[in-house]
Amino acid sequence: MRTKEHSNKKLGNVIIFCFLCVLTVVFLYPLFFILNNSFKGKFYISADPFSLPNAETFVGKTNYVNGLLKTGLFSAIGWSFFITIVSVVLIILFTSMTAYYITRVKSKYSSILYYMFTFSMIVPFQMVMFTMTSLADTFHLRTPWGMCILYLGFGAGLSVFMFSGFVKSIPLEIEEAAMIDGCNPLQTYFGAVFPILKPTAITVAILNAMWVWNDFLLPYLVIGILTDYKTIPVVVQMLVGSNGNKDMGALMAMLVLSIIPIVIFYLTCQKYIIEGMVAGAVKG
Amino acid sequence: MQKTLKKYLVIFTVPTLIAFSFAFIIPFVMGLYLSFCEFATVKNAKFVGLQNYITAFSGNQKFLSALLFTTAFTVVGIITINIFAFGIALLLTKKIKGTNIFRTVFFMPNLIGGIVLGYTWQQMINAVLLKYETTIVTNAKYGFWGLVLLMNWQMIGYMMIIYIAGLQNVPTELTEAAKIDGATSWQTLTKVIIPMVMPSITICMFLTLSNCFKLFDQNKALTNGAPMNKTEMLALNIYNTFYGKPGFEGVGQAKAVVFFLIVAGIALIQLKLTRSKEVEQ
Predict the structure, then answer these.
(1) Which residue of A has its CA nearest to B9?
(2) Given this model, what pLDDT does residue B167 score?
(3) Of B41, B114, B128, B137, which residue is 20 to 30 A from B202 by alpha carbon distance?
(4) pLDDT by residue (tens digit) across B220-273?
(5) A257: which residues sit within 8 A by CB, 6+ positions away?
């Protein structure tokens, strides 16, 4: 009786395991599809998109070379890195300081700021899209550095909200001890408080990094397609949108290249990313 | 301590506040005002009252049909994504070999950007439809289900992770007690497990709701509204009103305000629901 139930359960697990393996193939197939086609000649892709490249259709790195020459994707990867890293550093530094101030100093100013930051989280981008772009134009923010300032502004809502939630749980004694030792508020903050904020800082950094890296509309509107500062999503959009007679091979190759950095990042920091996304979902 | 910190107000809050004003406060206030104006650039606005709102809801603006399409897509999206994600989460909490690898793979699409994903799926769906000598932009049905498929592929992993966290918090004593009392697996699932993970279900429902409702990148990349704006969602409709036809910037802004009010309404309902749940516990 016991062994029968046991073997039933074992059989069930084998079935589930096989099912999950099938599902894994389904999930990975789209990525395999573009990788596979990126090695085929552009005229062969539409003829038989599902077959593996053979001696006739295989073109090696041609699509990659063509795509890179046409789009300047390498420079886009560079700018994506630059904008993402600078924005995230600015966001972590300044929003955590703001969150610390508005949690510790109880005043009208603090609570007005807190409510505005929270409110901004529920406003969709389309609401400020047009006016923000013309404001950025007036104040000469249509540069990579300007983009970083705009990202600091857009990211402030969620980031301040998450940091203040955590600051509330830090006991005051630590800061008071630092103050008595003669630290000014800046020294207290960076010496005693910021190190404690590290777990939240990692979460905030990951959430913002994923968002800035993948964001399309803001760089598309603010920086546009005519400058040298295009980011990856803008370049991909441009490659498809610009020419009606599109080079499918180059498109496949560029899709592959734009996915690679994010997959590497995911596989190296998987634990933090998953934890961060869950924390962000629960709080946001 | 508050007093000394107060003297540092400028250093601690002003950098964030300046960036926040450029990105949000000023554009938001201007946007509200301009939705009542006719304008081509922000500087030469002429007050026209509610005219933009009236135009926004007229038939040839396609705003209402976009709202309908968005709602239909969101409803189908919420149901399919959550059922699949919950199902997979149940399987992955059964202590099967390789659970970690499965989890890693299923979560991965969530990190890839909407534009890149959109074009990847466009290529794949077109490759399938090619056998029937058609493409995704010929029929709104293809666009709709293509979008559902894409969003499922992207969001299932994310929701699955949240469900797994919820399921791991269900005490095993409860499910074992139900088993001893003679409950079938289905009864255990519906009477014990689902009530216990209700908070996760609420989170996932609203997360899928807001992600589907506000969708832009995937919509732009996959079909760009084709054929004839029939697969155009609200965000894309607003974008096209702003940048597609000169002279309709005010109408676009009015649409954006309506869009904002709907999204804010959803967020308030969510807040109310989660707050009342917290009180119960």
Answers:
(1) A101
(2) 94
(3) B114
(4) 999 998 888 899 999 999 999 999 888 899 999 999 999 999 999 999 998 888
(5) A64, A67, A68, A73, A77
Q: Which of B4, B8, B11, B123 to mutate to test the interface with A (most CBs of A within 10 A)?
A: B123
| Domain with A42 in it | 2-64
Is residue A138 situated within a structural domain?
yes
Residue stretches of chain A with pLDDT short of 50: 1
Last residue of a domain, one of A242, A257, A272: A242
Q: Which segments of chain B have a pLDDT < 70?
A: 1, 277-281
CB–CB contact A129 B12 (8 Å) = no
Q: pLDDT per residue over A94-112, tens digit each?
A: 999 999 999 999 999 999 9
Question: Does A139 reach chain B within 8 Å, measured CB to CB?
Answer: yes
Task: State the nearest Cα–Cα gap between A227 and chain B, in angstroms.
Answer: 19
This complex has an ipTM of 0.90
Inter-chain CB pairs, A–B, below 8 Å = 272
Among partner residues A94, A127, A184, which is closest to B16 by beta-carbon distance?
A94
Q: Which of A29, A64, A99 is the last residue of a domain?
A: A64
Residue A185 in domain = yes
**pLDDT attached to residue B280:** 47
Q: Which domains does chain B have, with CATH numbers?
A: 63-280 (1.10.3720.10)
Compute the nearest-CA separation of B126 from chain A (Å): 9
- For A172, nearest residue in chain B (alpha carbons): B1
Residues in A 217-276 with any Cβ partner in B closer than 8 A:
217, 232-233, 236-237, 240, 248, 251-252, 255, 258-259, 262-263, 265-267, 270, 273-274
Q: Do A78 and A218 share a domain, yes or no?
A: yes
Chain A contact for B119, CB < 8 A? Answer: yes
Rounded distance between C-alpha atoms, residue B7 and residue A126, angstroms:
37
Same structural domain for residues A60 and A92?
Answer: no
Residue in A23, A135, A184 closest to B27 by CB: A135
A window 70-89, beta carbon within 8 A of B: none
Alpha helices in chain A (DSSP H): 2-37, 42-45, 62-71, 73-104, 108-120, 126-138, 144-167, 172-180, 185-188, 194-196, 198-214, 217-222, 232-242, 248-268, 270-283
pLDDT of residue A245: 52
Quote the radius of gyration of chain A (alpha carbons, Å): 25
Q: State the smallest CA–CA distance between residue B30 and chain A in angstroms.
A: 7
Q: Specify the pLDDT at position B281.
A: 41
Task: Give the pLDDT confidence score for residue A244 in this predicted structure.
Answer: 53
Sequential DSSP letters for A22-59: HHHHHHHHHHHHHHHHTTB-HHHHTT-TTSPP-TTTB-
The pTM for the full model equals 0.91
Rounded-to-integer distance, Cα B222 and Cα B144, Å: 10
- Inter-chain CB proximity B102 and A24 less than 8 Å: yes
pLDDT computed for residue A251 by the predictor: 87
| Residue A279 placed within a domain | no
Q: Cα–Cα distance between B51 and B28 in angstroms, integer? A: 20
